[in-house]
Design brief:
This protein is mainly β. It has 4 helices and 14 strands. Among the domains are: about 100 residues, membrane protein fhac (Ubiquitin-like (UB roll), Roll), CATH 3.10.20.310; about 130 residues, no CATH class. Strands 4-5-6-7-8-9-10-11-12-13-14 form an 11-stranded antiparallel beta sheet.
């Protein structure tokens, strides 16, 4: 009898040990399923009579836009921290009304990951109007924050300005997230009126995740045409030609995970030609070199109905800097 009891106890202990070992094994990502939904879903409560029209005018976000932000791939171990950060990154892009990253355990040692996104309306028209001090501005703006479903931001506006009889002014701007699907962002701007033209071009590799160690940026601007010079004697300004060129570059290195320390440096060079010395402005033909140290300790808390009905990631923590 005692021998039978001993055998049963040994079998029970072996089963417990096997169960504990099984529970401690990491889950392997077997598959990743992406469900991309339009602005209005026919199966949801927000569907209304004109929903199909809005959907027809919108291009659903391309699958590669989501895939470029994934911090995991098939065959990796399941890491809930990376799943949550991926969801947070997708939400931060600003083109989705809803984002969900979840996983389901299958076959004991593997899991399937499901990513669901629902686009938000990306086309944003606006009427521009402002008045004060005898000056009136009136115009219109058209912006799309998810052009052709590529997460590209494009904006144009036309504005009639009565200040100094400037007249019509136009501006076009494009921001390409992940230029050619790389880590680098592109931003280009062109603004012009009958007096002056301003052009800017900027390339930036930002801190996209909590684990990225480096970030950098370089930009150039070119302004030319005529500027208004007030001599303090007459109320009517003098129109003087100018040409302003500027180059700015910066680089930053980060260390740590939750408590991060940043060391950054920036360089700026300016080359300006003005018609008369009296019209020279501060920082013309100058340069600077700056070094900065900063730190941040942060965590994120998911919140709803804080600034709207959508889910937000609220930062909690503290930061400081010295230049």
């Amino acid at each position: 009898m005692m021998r039978i009891v001993g055998v049963l106890l040994a079998l029970f202990s072996a089963m417990v040990c096997t169960a504990q070992e099984t529970d401690s094994l990491p889950l392997i990502i077997r598959s990743i399923t992406i469900d991309r939904r339009d602005i209005f879903d026919a199966d949801s409560s927000d569907w209304f009579f004109a929903a199909s029209i809005f959907n027809a005018l919108h291009t659903t976000t391309k699958q590669h836009v989501l895939e470029d932000e994934f911090l995991f791939e098939e065959g990796d171990d399941i890491d809930t921290t990376l799943l949550l950060e991926t969801e947070r990154i997708l939400r931060r892009i600003g083109i989705f009304a809803n984002v969900s990253v979840r996983y389901t355990q299958v076959n004991g040692d593997s899991a399937d990951v499901y990513i669901t996104t629902q686009d938000r309306l990306s086309l944003r028209p606006a009427i521009l109007f402002g008045t004060g001090g005898g000056i009136t501005n009136l115009g219109a703006k058209l912006e799309d924050v998810n052009l052709f479903g590529t997460a590209t931001q494009a904006m144009i506006y036309g504005l009639h300005r009565t200040e100094n009889d400037i007249g019509w002014e136009g501006m076009a701007q494009i921001t390409q997230r992940r230029l050619f699907r790389t880590e680098v962002n592109l931003k280009a701007t062109l603004k012009a009126n009958r007096f002056r033209t301003d052009q800017t071009l900027e390339f930036v590799k930002p801190y996209r995740t909590m684990a990225i160690p480096w970030a950098f940026g370089i930009g150039a601007s070119n302004g030319f045409g005529s500027d208004f010079f007030y001599d303090g004697i007459t109320a009517i300004p003098t129109i003087l030609p100018f040409h302003d060129r500027e180059v700015v570059g910066w680089i930053s290195q980060a260390s740590g995970e939750r408590d991060r320390l940043f060391t950054s440096a920036s360089v700026r060079l300016s080359d300006v030609d003005r018609a008369v010395p009296a019209s020279r402005q501060a920082f013309d033909n100058t340069g600077h070199f700056l070094v900065a140290f900063s730190s941040i300790s942060q965590s994120f808390r998911r919140s709803q109905f804080l600034n709207g009905y959508e889910t937000e990631d609220v930062q909690e923590g503290a930061w400081g800097s010295a230049i």
